[in-house]
TrEMBL record:
InterPro entries: DNA_brk_join_enz, Integrase-like_cat_sf, Integrase_catalytic, Integrase_recombinase_N, Integrase_SAM-like_N, Phage_Integrase. Residues 25-36 have a biased composition (Basic and acidic residues). This is Site-specific integrase. One of its GO terms (biological process) is DNA recombination. Keywords: DNA integration, DNA recombination, DNA-binding. It comes from Streptomyces shenzhenensis. The keyword DNA-binding applies. Pfam families: Phage_int_SAM_3, Phage_integrase. Residues 1-36 are annotated as: Disordered.
Length: 409
């Protein structure tokens, strides 16, 4: 319009899409007409040749579909890929909100390149664990953008972690001894001693112990079935019917001390032997282990509510840390990845010590895996070794032999 004014060269309409001298028009794989403008005819012809070939071969991608911000793509992608497990969901949300969105949320999908993503991982993502969880999510996000025909390839596919796995001193990997735990137990308040005894003699994870219901106990056979867990969903305790892996569904023997801990909690709380569905909510009255406040009426926000009392690992630490300090075994350990100071021993070290006791007693690897709820230890071991029918009796004997069991007062 500027080069050929209408008053000199005749009246004509103004075209918004005419930004070049030549317009290449074509139909995409859906039959919709598309157009792109070029300053020279040979450029338009070359573009048409390439596009028509891609349409015939089924490799054509509409450039506009990749011209979308990563955060907009996330809004479309997340509802179809949101994990059902709260712990997995929260981990992915944390990776997105803390690391990926602030850096790349405004960028177009088709503008991301391998080199800038690799540089970001190497220079800005600190720690092996952080790089692992962030790269896992980013690669999934961009992989599905390729599948949705928004970009031709995944620019993060070959991006690698640059941080090395943390290396800990052997002293920090060795679980406390039985004598250490006896000292810690002596300094725990009386209410929490059955919890410590049960963890030490069953090897259950914290969430598995907290999710143990009376109906899961077989007091005639002295066993407990692991069927549910209690998880911390961003500060809210929730009931979940799926352990960490499918192997988490298992039956664990009760030693004399673990049975005493069970009897003590039954005498204290008399948990209900009813069977409720996970979808019905916590139903804390069925839980074997609860806090001292479980069942009490407290005023919260001007309303009287019943305290459920489901056990929280963070609340237990309020008693655990003073106990390990009073026992004289506590020490601060620097996390090699985050640089934060952490207490040793941890509550989870009960499980490590439990596994050590089974191995020291000479139990087969496949039996140890079953009792601990591990999916598998080594591929060869798992393929060519079968769990013995005597696994429960072997574990009970391994945990009880040569030990003086203490009753819970």
């Amino acid at each position: 319009m500027e080069a050929y004014p209408p008053e000199q060269h005749g009246d004509r309409r103004k075209r918004r899409d005419c930004t070049g001298s030549w317009q290449a028009r074509y139909r995409d794989a859906n039959g919709d007409q598309k157009a792109k403008n070029f300053p020279k005819k040979k450029e338009a012809d070359a573009f048409l040749d390439a596009v028509r070939g891609a349409v015939r071969q089924g490799t054509y991608l509409d450039p506009k579909r990749g011209n979308i911000a990563l955060e907009k793509w996330w809004e479309e992608w997340w509802p179809a890929n949101e994990p059902k497990r709260p712990t997995t969901r929260n981990r992915k949300l944390s990776a997105w909100t803390v690391h990926i969105r602030p850096k790349w949320g405004k960028r177009k999908l088709n503008s991301l390149t391998y080199l800038e993503l690799q540089t970001w991982v190497a220079q800005e993502l600190k720690g092996h664990a952080t790089q692992t969880k962030v790269l896992e999510l980013l690669k999934m996000l961009l992989r599905d953008a390729v599948r949705d025909q928004r970009i031709p390839f995944n620019p993060a596919a070959d991006v690698t972690k640059t941080a090395s796995p943390p290396v800990k001193h052997p002293d920090d990997l060795t679980p406390p001894t039985t004598e250490h735990y006896a000292l810690v137990r002596a300094h725990l308040p009386a209410w929490w001693r059955p919890v410590a005894d049960f963890l030490e003699d069953t090897g259950l994870r914290w969430g598995e112990m907290a999710g143990t219901r009376r109906v899961f106990l077989d007091l005639e056979a002295d066993t407990v079935k692991v069927r549910e867990v209690v998880i911390d969903d961003r500060g809210t305790l929730r009931r979940q019917g799926i352990p960490k892996t499918a192997a988490g569904f298992r039956t664990v023997p009760l030693t004399a001390r673990a049975r005493t801990a069970v009897d003590t909690m039954i005498a204290r709380l008399d948990p209900a032997a009813t069977v409720t569905a996970v979808e019905d909510g916590m139903h804390a009255e069925e839980l074997l282990f609860r806090s001292p406040l479980g069942g009490e009426r407290r005023r919260v926000g001007g309303k009287l509510v019943t305290v459920e009392g489901a056990l929280s690992r963070n609340n237990f630490r309020r008693y655990w840390i003073p106990a390990i300090e009073a026992a004289g075994i506590a020490r601060k350990v620097t996390n090699p990845e985050t640089g934060r100071k952490e207490w040793w021993p941890r509550v989870s070290d009960y499980r490590d010590r439990f596994a050590s006791r089974l191995h020291e007693a000479g139990m087969s690897e496949v039996d140890v895996q079953y009792i601990l709820g591990h999916e598998r230890g080594g591929k060869v071991t798992w393929m060519y070794t079968h769990r013995g029918d005597q696994a429960l009796d072997n574990a009970r004997a391994a945990l009880s032999e040569g030990r003086h069991l203490r009753a819970v007062s």
